[in-house]
Every structure is written in C-alpha cells, then in structure tokens.
Design a protein that fits this description.
Length: 178
C-alpha cells in the first residue's frame, strides 16, 4: 500500500466500541498491574481498563473465557446490557456506530491520504475537512449548533439526525457542492 492509500493508524481502546468504562472500584487484592506494586500501592495502574470484555449477556463471565472459569478481573453487572450480543445489529448502539465508522473510514474517498484542514467554527465546536467531500464536526458546547453547508450526513453519534448538532455530539458529513 502506498503512502497516499494508507488510511492511517487507528485503534480502539479496551471496550470503547461497546461504551464500557474503566472499572475504578476493583478490590486492591485483585490488582495485578506492576505499577501497583512498584508504586507501593499508591497508583492502581491499568487494571481498571483491562477487565474482560462482555461478549454474551447471559453466559458466565459474560462469555469471556472457557466455561466454568472466572475472569482474571471482575466485570461490573451493568456490562450485561452492553455486551456484544446485545448491541450487535441494534440500531443506535455504540458497537454499531463504531462498525459504521470503520466501514465509512475504509470506503469514503475523502478519508484516503493524510490531508486535514481546520475550518472556522463557533466557540466550543471543532470542524475539519479531509480530501474532497468529507467533513467532521464536533459540538463540545452547551447549546445545539446548526451545521453550515451540509449536503449529506454520513454518520452521526446521535440519531435520528436533525439539522442541529446537539451538545456532546459528532457528525461526519458531505458538504454541499460549491
């Protein structure tokens, strides 16, 4: 693959694609990260984000590991509703949003290459353009923001989509032709 075809590196952090959070209340006796020992039990390390991912809401250990085995770190009971089997195929789920983003990233011509241009946007918002026909807007402000020159919403973190980008929402879109 040539440099102009390389879509760039991306990664998904432990459970991010399911909307999981870092487990901050693990019992001290279960912590295994070397940082815990090296810090004299002052820094808990990374164990809170190393809790096994839930695959099945009804299986023991949420389907992570062989039947009858306990995971190396306990999983929060609330994760049952965020398991892969619950979110697979569920419109609006975090997992399906990530899957759609990966497909779009792979298939949209505006995401080939490495160019990026920041666009003007109101305080508390960000907007950039990549290639031809791809823009990304993020609203970090407290009020909705009407996106300028939207032709087609390609993907949004909040559905159903309206012309307003709600607070704490992102949208990938194609601008209107000029």
């Amino acid at each position: 693959m040539s440099a102009d075809q390389n879509p760039g590196a991306a990664y998904v952090y432990q459970g991010e694609e399911l909307g999981l959070w870092e487990v901050e209340d693990l019992p001290d006796a279960l912590l295994q990260d070397p940082t815990w020992e090296r810090s004299g039990h002052q820094s808990r390390g990374r164990d809170g984000c190393r809790v096994p991912v839930p695959w099945s809401r009804t299986a023991p250990s949420f389907g992570f590991g062989p039947p009858g085995s306990a995971p190396w770190l306990p999983q929060p009971a609330e994760w049952a509703s965020l398991s892969v089997d619950v979110q697979s195929g569920l419109s609006g789920s975090t997992l399906e949003l990530y899957r759609a983003a990966v497909r779009l990233r792979r298939d949209h011509p505006g995401l080939a290459g490495e160019d990026l241009r920041w666009l003007p946007s109101p305080a508390g918002t960000l907007q950039f353009e990549r290639g031809e026909g791809f823009r990304c807007a993020l609203n970090l402000a407290d009020a909705p923001w009407e996106l300028p020159a939207v032709a087609t919403i390609l993907l949004a973190s909040e559905m159903p989509w309206t012309s307003m980008l709600a607070p704490d929402t992102a949208a990938w879109y194609a601008p209107r032709p000029t």
